[in-house]
Amino acid sequence: MKKKIYLLFIPALLIQCLSLRNGEKPDSDLIEIAKWSVNEGKLGTATILQQEQAKNTIKNIEETWIKIKTILPEKYMAQYVKELEIFTDGADGTLAGVKPTDESNESWSYGIDPADLPEGDWQNKEDFLHTLLHEFGHILTLNNTQVEPSELDFQEDEARYLTNEGLAKIDSYVNQFVQQFWYQDDLLFEWDKIQKTRNLDKKLDQLYDFYKNHKTKFYTDYAAESPEEDIAESWYYFVLLDKPEGRLIKNQKLLFFYKFPELVLLRTEIRSAIR
Ligand SMILES: [Zn+2]
């Protein structure tokens, strides 16, 4: 577990996604309520873990799942998402999360907190869409076509970025992204040093300083949390924003995605679903 200390605090090894400065700390009190197997995009058998809390959430699950599938690209969801999980840490905190179901990264669990589901139509709920698409960005960039299992504890080869989920393939999106953006100005080196800080408060302060010192490179403070979060955040803004003309590094990060026709297609597909 080289980096992203957040993972250590989360029982389900969920990829934790929240702002560094929202006043939210990584939440160790995430309660798993229920999970469903998913086959080709269809909900299967439910496993109820918290009877009491499940009562209110289960009856709307089909509707929620259909809404998620309306927004997120069907082909990818059907291929990778094999489990839907309902968890909660109360309102706010973690809205959604994803995790690979095993080390192969072939199948993923998509988790949502029913306490954070917006009322009515989701199409104009920007914060919520941000989270849904950000999480999808992890599946897109960390699945088994992108990252392979590895026994490595530390980054040993500069040519291949070591993620928490394994070693990035040379042509993977995240590897190309790291090569293009995180070796500039020794960013990866500076960030790796911060990962060694054991005190979590200090580490979050250092990460926030890191963000402030490189503000023109990141769309959000959370993007500075790691290359994996950076590519997921950049992916979201690639989908949401018009093609940028600016020369800032963060603009270049959006232009990065335009090099891949399949991602431009996904962008079009999602934009038509959310407009
Ligand atoms: Zn994330």
How is the topology of this model organized?
Elements lengths: L30 E9 L2 E7 L2 H8 L2 H11 L2 H7 E8 L7 E5 L7 E5 L13 H17 L4 E2 L13 E2 L2 E3 L4 H9 L5 H9 L4 H14 L13 H14 L8 H9 L3 H14 L1
Briefly, what is this?
The protein is of the alpha+beta class. The protein is built from 10 helices and 8 strands.
Mean pLDDT equals 88
Strand order of the largest sheet: 2-1-3-5-4
Q: Kindly, what is the distance between the CA atoms of the first and last residues, rounded to a whole number of angstroms?
A: 40 Å
When the domains are counted, the total is 2
Radius of gyration: 18 Å
Bound molecules: zinc ion
Biggest beta sheet attributes: 5 strands, mixed
Beta-strand level of the residues, as a percent range? 5-15%
Category by helix and strand content: alpha+beta
Net shape: globular
Helical run tally? 10
Low-confidence regions: 1-15, 18-25
Count the beta strands.
Answer: 8
SSE order: EEHHHEEEHEEEHHHHHH
Helix content: 40-55%
List keywords for this structure.
alpha+beta; 2 domains; five-stranded mixed beta sheet; about 40% helix; single chain; about 280 residues; three-stranded antiparallel beta sheet; binds zinc ion
Kindly describe this structure:
The structure is a single chain. The chain has 275 residues and is α+β, with helices and mostly antiparallel strands. It is built from 10 helices and 8 strands. The protein has 2 domains: 5-127, no CATH class; 147-274, no CATH class. 41% of the residues lie in helices and 15% in strands. A hairpin with a 2-residue loop joins strand 7 and strand 8 (166-168). Bound molecules: zinc ion. Zinc ion binds next to helix 4 and helix 8. Zinc ion is lined by residues 15, 17, 134, 138, 229, 232.
